[in-house]
Structure formats: C-alpha cells, structure tokens
Amino acid sequence: MAGFIHSRLKASTPPQLRLRISPKAETILRGGHPWLFADSLRETNRDGRTGELAVIYDRKDCFLGIGLFDPASPIRVRMLHAGKPVKLDRAWWSKHLAQTLERRSTLFDKQTTGYRLCNGESDGWPGFIIDRYDSTLVLKLYTAAWFPRLDEIASLLHEQIPHERIVLRLSRNIQATAQTAGLADGQIFRGTPLHDPVVFLESGLRFEADVLRGQKTGFFLDQRENRKLVESHARGRHVLNAFSFSGGFSLYAARGGARSVTDLDISAHALESSRKNFALNPSVTKCPHEFVKADAFEWLKEGPPFDLVILDPPSLAKKESERDGAIQAYGRLASCGIHRLRPDGILVAASCSAHVSASEFFDIIRNAAQESGRKFQELHITSHPPDHPATFPEANYLKCIHLGF
Ligand code: SAH
C-alpha cells in the first residue's frame, strides 16, 4: 500500500492508523452511517490492531472521521466521530458518556430502575450497550474492539453514575477472543460479587433479571411501552401472553385488572422466572395465572379462547436468508392468534427481526386480520422506546401492532 500519509510520531510508536475508503463508502459515512465494511477500504498505511482508533480520509485526503478498528469483523471500522478533526482523549470520552447519560435523565422516575443507558451505534457507541438494573450496570459488547477501552470506560462510569457493580456480557462471536484477553461472558468486571438474578423496578412492578446468563442482558427492556398499553386494555380480559419469557406483559396485564393471565413459553426456565416475578408483586398475585410449557406455534393451533392475545416471538429472521420463512411464520402465528380471540378481542403482535421491515410486518398482520373475515381496527402502532433510539436502518428492529376485533 502507498504510504500516503507521513507520520511525525516517534519511530517506536506506531503511526496513527489511517484509511482511505471507496467513494461509495465516503457517501455512506457522510450520510451518518456508523459502519465501514472491509470491502470498502482502499488504502491503509499499515495493518490495524483490534480496538485501535482508525482515522478515515476521503479521496482528497480530507478528514472524514474516526472509528474503532476490528480486523476480525466484516464491519472493519465502527464510527465514533464524523465531521471536524478531534482528539479522542479522556475528556472526549468523558463528555461522550455524559451526553449519553443525559439523554436518559428525564425519561424515568423512581418507579423505573431498569432501562437502557446506552444503545450502541444509535447513541454513538457502536457495538456497545449499557443497561441499568437498579444498582447493577450491564455492559454488552458486540465487538472485541472495545476490550482495550474497558478499564477507562469503567473508570468514567464510576465518576458519572453511582452503581454497585458492572457485569460484562459478550456476544457469542467474540467470546473466544475475550478469553485471550482474560475476559468472559457473565464476569463481574467491577464491584461486588453476584450469584443470583438482580431485582429492579419497571413502572412500579418488581422484576428479576438474570444479568449473568439471561437472554440479551437479562430482560427485554425494549417492550416497556407495549406492556403499558397492554395494561391499559387488560381489564376484565382473559389474557394469553405467548412467548412470555419472564412474564413482562403478564404482570402489567394482571395489574391492569385482567380476569386471568396465561404465560406460554417453550422454556421451563423462562416460566419459572415469570412465576418468581408474580411472587415479587403481591398486588398482582390475586389475578389467576397459569403457565403453559409448549411450542407456541403448535399450541396456538387449537386451545381455549382469550380476550387479549400477545405474540412476541424471538427474532424469526436473524439473517437475510431467513426472511421468507419469517414472513410466513408471522402470518401463521397471527392467524392462529386471531382464531383464539373472542368477539371484541385484542391482538398484540410484535416483531424484533431487523430483516423484516415495519411496513412489511404490519402488512402481514393486517392481511391475517383481513383473511379472518372479522372486522378490526388498529388501536396502536409502536416502534422503539426512547431509551432504545434507532438512528440508521439496520438498528431498527422493533415494531408492534395492536388490533381490536
Ligand atoms: N415477550 C417477552 C420476550 C420474549 S423473548 C418479554 O416481554 O419479556 C422470546 C421468548 O420466546 C423466549 O422466552 C423463548 O423461550 C420463547 N420461545 C422461543 N421459541 C418458542 C416457541 N416455539 N414456542 C414458545 N416459546 C418460544
């Protein structure tokens, strides 16, 4: 590669990693997209190391931005800053964190102590999540590029937000690299040990979250707003919460005055967690609740009727090739769910598959409703809650539609 930029640093310090990229990638970065793929790199002054800062230049050697280099990922650089040249020193990181935390400062009152503090790319922290569960902070990393920065980030968190401990969670694809860096999924990175799930508040309800081993960071914090809507419609209804996980929707429905709540999940562990969550909230245990361990796709084909059916399956299209199958599966689920509904029933259908767009998903559910031959109206259409901002297309995964029949 041509040594297109001369470094003035001492010979012992490697020169700043500098990259030139394809014209198409330039346009994409200028449009605010946070990812630079390996095949869009055109020139580099040397090989980059995991987690070092790469400075990106355009065709005319003008500064475009700075990102985190990851030689092991097809997303070779994750952008941290674009625009005018800056130095990403401790003061920059401190301000960056303060601004991220500030965006949540007015979102929640004391009744909600579990929420997302930092939502990755969409908050300017690519591949880096911070969830707060009361006094436990959970960092979830999707790239090894953050490993060299963890000590500094932990020290900034210590300065800016009171907490008892920091738990580290790692996506599967970086767990082997983590081992070589002395890090592990579920480790207590800072603070006091933890062996059990933590308990936190969401809209005044108490929930446990298995932050060490659970899915995501232990709880589906992204469904808070949809749960509130379910609570507002639940009075006097028999409610089915399909794909219930730890019972998030169920507890809101019970508090909203549901006549009964049924949790349906394929995982005994998830149902046990829901049972514990009911037990944590004496005010809702009066509501009759049942737990069904079954494959929802099968169980929904026949069974008792309900007045409110919630369908919140796991992602059915984790990659583009699974899209068609997912579209069919969403349709089948919705048809079965509508079939279970009594007159005046409500269907709540959610999707967390980024590969199925919101408009596609809503059309699938509307089609299923039309094919049922029943009259229906759209009660609510929702997307990401404010603590889970999505600022670019790939980040936009969550959508939910509430239909009244
Ligand atoms: N609605 C939940 C989150 C759902 S996560 C909440 O608000 O917290 C998806 C859940 O679907 C997981 O608990 C998983 O165990 C369950 N699951 C996955 N496949 C399933 C299937 N075929 N039938 C029933 N449950 C399933």
| CATH homologous superfamily heading of the largest domain | Vaccinia Virus protein VP39
Kindly report the average pLDDT value: 95
Number of spatially distinct domains: 3
Low-confidence stretches: 1-10
Radius of gyration: 23 Å
The CATH class label of the largest domain is Alpha Beta
Characterize the biggest β-sheet.
Answer: 7 strands, mixed
* CATH topology title of the largest domain: Rossmann fold
Secondary-structure element pattern, one letter each: EHEEEEEHEEEHEHEEEHEHEHEHEHEHEE
The main sheet orders its strands as 16-15-14-17-18-20-19
Number of strands: 20
Report the helical percentage. 25-40%
In angstroms, what separates the terminal alpha carbons? 64 Å
Bulk shape: globular
* Tally of helical runs: 10
What's the CATH architecture of the largest domain? 3-Layer(aba) Sandwich
Structural class: alpha/beta
Cofactors and ligands = S-adenosyl-L-homocysteine
- Hey, roughly how much beta strand do the residues contain? 25-35%
Give a quick summary of the entry.
With 405 residues, this protein is α/β, with parallel strands linked by helices. The protein has ten helices and 20 strands. S-adenosyl-L-homocysteine is lined by residues 220, 223, 243-246, 248-249, 265-267, 270, 295-297, 312-314.
